[in-house]
Amino acid sequence: MRYAETGFNLEIDLSRGNIERVETDQRLTELHLGGLGTNAKILWDRVSPETDPFSSDNLLIIGTGLLCGTPAVGANRTIVSTMSPQTLFMGYSMMGGFFAPELKYAGYDKVIFRGKSPKLIYVWINNDKVELRDASHLKGKGANETAELIRQELKDPNIHVAAIGLAGENKVYMASIEQGRSSASRQGVGAVMGDKGIKAIAVRGTKDINIARPAEYIGLCNDVLNYIKYRAEHPIKNVEPIFEGLGSPQEMKLIDEKWHTTGFMWGNARTRRKDYWTKEVEEKWRETQESVRTRLISCYNCPMKCGAIISVPGISTYMMKCYSKLTYTMAAFSNLDFGFTIAQRATDYGVDGFSTPQTMAFALELYEAGILTDQDMPGMPSDTEGRFYWLLDRIVRREGIGDILANGTYWAAKQIGKGAEEFAHNNIKKHEQLPLKLGMLNPVYFLMYCTGEKANITQIEGQFPQEPFPNREMREEFVKDWIQVPDEKFKKYFLDWEPRGENANPLYPTPQMASEIVEWMEKMHYIDDALGVCAGLSSFPLKPPYHMHNYPAFISAATGIDMDQAGLNKIYQRNRNLVRANNIRRGLSRADEKPPEDHWKKRFPEIEEKLLDTYYEYKGWDRNGIPKKETLNELGLDYIREDFEQRGIIKNE
Ligand code: SF4
């Protein structure tokens, strides 16, 4: 019997219209867990590095995490993996909501698409019955509308649907896969879904998931619930409200946006407005938010309610969560009511709420600089809000200048030329990032931004505070109940980290300490992404309920696999190197590992080189960031070593 996982994948060849239910190899679960780990293994095995993201040989994997569908709180992530048209590397993007548990209940751990459908289809997975159905009547429909039409057509309101909007159909690089209560938005996964001719995947499942040791497992789940309650009653002291608790940043509850609006950048990551937040603005924003937020909602089996149903008069309702509340507003130098209104259209078109507003602000900056002209923007309105709608409509249709902008700022700048590259300044690995500009180089965050394979800083952040606390008393207070640290040394690193002086950025934490801290942060992300646990309850907040001390017990009780911290650490290392190997084979090198160029005002090239050298060494990689032979052999990744040797990536001595 298989525990926690179903033991079956759905393999769908869209070119042939062939559907197979394939039993998986349990040994792979022991080596990689599930989710991101096994997705990366499948991509390594089956997608050659020469494969173009829009080739029919590219795969689109809709994977569930190993614990999804079990009673583990917040285990609901779908991990969508493919070769990304945006970065040209392996892309993986997560969505919460209800989709992954439903897919497990239908009897599948993953759906693996290959080929391309000759006509637009949607997939209907109803337990053992799986069909590819004509979707020509859904062409051009919004993502949320598509989901609703499919539920009506199949006469079941409980079906969960992941759909693309117009942007995905038109292979816009920033196209998302929308799922009602969440979306997989980054790295162009919606564009690949559109390229494959899949409008939507609808799923309904009524089967059970087996748990190896149910009583023990329920006890662990209850411990997590109790901790969530405790943390709600005992917010972390001395930090911004956004860091006090758990979950995704609680933007739908919070009204006070002083921290974001005065600290983050407006426009295309350009301008800080230090005096923006006033009593008047707060009152106005409160009124706006409370008038459109009809109720707070959660993902499957989670009490956190990070999202909200937003209902702006005159347009259909949609779900919003997290920092996307502010991305359109701040990119357009506008107001919150604009942000809530345009986000509805953007969600139905199915676009990433981070890249899209930045790309539109980038276009307007080019226009103001005379690099784009009236000839490029015929009929564009004169007001900024009107311009944002105008640009959005053209980007998702790939019309006129929208066809160039649809590829994001990096590729658009290259195509436009005339100095446009200077304006595409907020990318990592060709992908737009959070709009931040800070003062002094922060060693830990430098390494996370540079070396993270998600190409997304919001998903790299973690349990080690982003800044030193002002004084030692505050730091001592913080470490008192810091049970999540995998090693006591991290408490000392934090206690000694000062805002100024010898033990301050950029010299402290030292490169060695920074490498160790980064490994802890990324470890939690890799484990979450393999288990399908929401980062909001593990790798993202400062003091989460899931951590290295209780994860092994969860995995053991759920799967029956004998797991301890050393074993889990090895799986993380294996998955980390496997994802990296996919990218190395596609050309990733040290030259790609740099933060957005003006993320920090004060940069230190020598320290930055030293940081990368030390981190690579600590990871068992060479100076170019390529895993060494002994590292690969040690992790049982000798097939990667052999491939690298054959390709001349590492020497066969
Ligand atoms: S913490 Fe928030 S985002 Fe995460 S599963 Fe719960 S409701 Fe969803």
Report on the architecture of this protein.
By secondary structure, the chain is of the alpha+beta class. The chain contains 24 helices and 21 strands. Strands 2-1-6-3-4-5 form a six-stranded mixed sheet, sandwiched between helices. A hairpin with a 2-residue loop joins strand 7 (121-126) and strand 8 (129-134). Helix 1 packs across helix 2, helix 7 runs antiparallel to helix 20 and helix 11 (336-349) packs parallel to helix 13 (384-397). The longest helix has 21 residues, at 511-531. The radius of gyration is 23 Å and the shape is globular. The two termini are 44 Å apart. The model has no long low-confidence stretch (mean pLDDT 95). The protein binds iron/sulfur cluster (SF4).
Topology:
Blueprint: E1 8-13, E2 18-23, H1 26-32, H2 35-46, E3 60-64, E4 78-83, E5 90-95, H3 99-106, E6 110-114, E7 121-126, E8 129-134, H4 143-153, E9 160-163, H5 166-169, E10 177-178, E11 183-184, H6 189-195, E12 198-204, H7 214-233, H8 258-263, E13 265-266, E14 271-272, H9 279-292, E15 293-297, E16 307-310, E17 318-321, H10 324-331, H11 336-349, H12 355-368, H13 384-397, H14 401-405, H15 408-416, E18 427-428, E19 431-432, E20 438-440, H16 443-451, H17 472-479, H18 489-495, H19 511-531, H20 551-559, H21 565-585, E21 600-602, H22 605-619, H23 629-634, H24 638-647
Parallel strand pairs: 1-6, 7-12, 20-21
Antiparallel strand pairs: 1-2, 3-4, 3-6, 4-5, 7-8, 9-12, 10-11, 13-14, 15-16, 16-17, 18-19
Helix pairs in contact: 1-2, 2-19, 2-21, 7-20, 10-11, 11-13, 12-13, 16-19, 19-21, 19-22
The structure holds iron/sulfur cluster (SF4).
